[in-house]
Design a protein that fits this description.
alpha+beta, six-stranded antiparallel beta sheet, three-stranded antiparallel beta sheet, 6 helices, 9 strands, about 20% strand, elongated
Length: about 230
Amino acid sequence: MATQLLERPVVLTASGTEPGDQHPTGPGQPDQQTAALQTEAPAALQTPMPYRIGTPDIASRYPVIIGRDLVIGRAHRWHRDWWVETSAGEKNIGRPEDGVPGVEKAAAHLAQEYAAGLITAVPLDQIRAEEPQPLTGPVPLLHPRMPANDRNIKSALTAFAGLANLRWRAVLTGFPGSDNHWVLACELCGWVGPKFWSHLRGRNGGLPSLHRHEGGCVGPDRVRELIPAYQQ
């Protein structure tokens, strides 16, 4: 999966330039756009350097990029907390403050860590090469982060039975819990991407929407025809 860039406002607390800057500043003199961002941005997002956030990979990890193509770390959510993966290992940075998107909190944290010399950057091409690929065979029952206790095993068995009933297949990990992304393949059209089991199981025990995923799948009428659960 190629990593594309999402447009994000850059928040600076120190002046300076990056390759391709359109508004270079003099020593200690931020331009008007930077000054406005400094004034309006929450303190949690103020960082000593510009960064941008890439499109997440198949495992829902966002690369945080500086310069042209250097990745200082990746960020992902797990059970409402946000985690970062860097050259120093993996770290839980907790939940974001009210009004602050978790990925922005994680990216600002990475920028601060890099500016302090605590982590190193790696080329974007290397990150792309390390991205996991969908498996063709069966996956384990539980995600590696999920403890193998009776409750989780029971929930996983229920989830896998539900996937089979609705023509989905897990292609990267075992059951990750109801509120974490689960990489699934649609058996009707071959689409692969992250879904939440809590969304697939429907509300109050009902069936999920006939709109299975982005792109429209095979259309609602064909979904009803191919999946017996919608005919009951």
